C-alpha cells in the first residue's frame, strides 16, 4: 500500500502521466506555430476594425444579423450547450462540499426458538453527513476543468455568433448579386430580342441571309435560358438566407438592388495577437486547459482518500418511539482509503486523460496554424481581386465600345453576323463577370474579418441574454 501511495505522490509532483501527455511548457501554441512579427502578405497600416459589420454601411444587413442572432436554431442549440456545461460545473463543484441526507429503514425479522418463531421489528431514522476532504486537490482540479469547460462553451457560442453573422452577410450579398444578375440577364435578353427584330427586318428587305436570322434567334434563346438559370439561383439564395434567419423559406425577403462599395482594407494587427482575438482559438485554448486539469485529477486518483462521516438518529422496534429524544444517538467517523487493486481501471483512466490532453494541445496548434493561413490568404486575395477588378472593369468598357462599333458596322454591311454576336458575347461576359467579381471582393472582405476574429459589437440577442442570465 505504501508503494502505491508513493507512486501516486510521484505522479502528482512530476505532473506527468504517460508518453502521450504533453508537458506544460509545450502547451504554448507558439512552440508549434512560431508567429512572425508581421504578416507575410501585404497589410494595411490602418488600425484593426472594431465593428466589422458597420464597415459595410448597410443598415438592412445589421437588422438581418440581429434577427438571425435571435432566431437561428443552430445558434440556439449552441447556446443550450453552455447551459449543459454550467449544470456540469455545478454538479462537479458539489462534490467538494459536505453531503447531508436522511435515511429511514424499516425491517421485520423472525427467529425460530424451541419450535416457535419470534418476530421483531426494527425501525431506524438517521441524519447522515458525508464529506470527502480534498487533501490532494483532486476534486478542485475536476471543478476547475468544469469551470474551464463553461468558459470554452461561451467562447464557442461567441464563435458561432460570429460565424452566423458572417454567413448572413455572405448570403445577403449573394442574394443582391444574383438579383442583379437576373436584371442584367433580362436586359440582355431584351437587347438580343431587339437585335433579332432588326435582323429579321433587314432579311425581309433582302439584306442579309437566313443564317443571320438563325444565329440571332439562337443567341436570344440562349439569353432566355441564362435568365431562367439566374432566376433559379436568385430564388435559392433568398431561401437559404431566410432559413439562416430562422424564417420559413417563402422567398418573400426584399433584397436590395445595389452592391455596396468596399471601405479601405483594415489593419490586421500583429499575428501573435490572433490567438486572443479569435473566439474559436480561445475556446480551443480553454479546452486544452480543462483537459490538463482532468489529467491532474486522474493522476491523483492513486492517492488515498480521506472521508469524514457522521450520523445522528435513533433505532427502535416501535416506530412511534423513533422520535423519543432520550433514544437519539450520534456517531462520527473518519476513513482513509487507498486503491490496492482496480484491475487496471485507474491506469486506463490516466492514459485516457493523458491522450485526451495531448489531443487538445495538438488541436489547438492545428487551429492556430489554420487561422494564420486564413488571414494570410484573405490579405493576399484582397490585392489580387482589386487588380482583377481594375482589369475586368477596363475590359468591360472596351467590350461595350466594341459591341457598339460592331453593331454600326453590321448595320452598314461592313462585318458579318458572327463578328456582331462575338462582340455582344464578350460585352455580356465581361459585364456579368464584373458583377460577380464585386461580390467576390465582398465575400473575401467578410472572410478577412472572420479570420481576424470579427470584433463585432452587436446587441445581445434574446437567447444569449437568457443564457447569460
Give the rounded overall mean pLDDT: 86
Strand order of the largest sheet: 1-2-3-4
Determine the fraction of residues in helical runs and give it as a percent range.
55-70%
Biggest beta-sheet profile: 4 strands, antiparallel
Radius of gyration: 36 Å
- Count the strands? 4
Strand content: 5-15%
Order of helices and strands: HHHHEEHHHHEEHHH
Q: How does the overall form come out from the CA principal axes?
A: elongated
| Protein structure class | alpha+beta
Poorly predicted regions are 11-19, 456-469
Distance between the termini: 49 Å
Helix segment tally? 11
Account of the 3D structure:
With about 475 residues, the chain is of the alpha+beta class. It has helices spanning about 1-15, 30, 60-70, 75-95, 140-205, 210-245, 275, 280-300, 345-410, 415-450, 460-469, and strands at about 100-115, 115-135, 305-315, 330-335. It has a four-stranded antiparallel beta sheet, with no helix packed on it. The two termini are about 50 Å apart. The model is unreliable at about 10-20 and about 455-469 (pLDDT under 50).
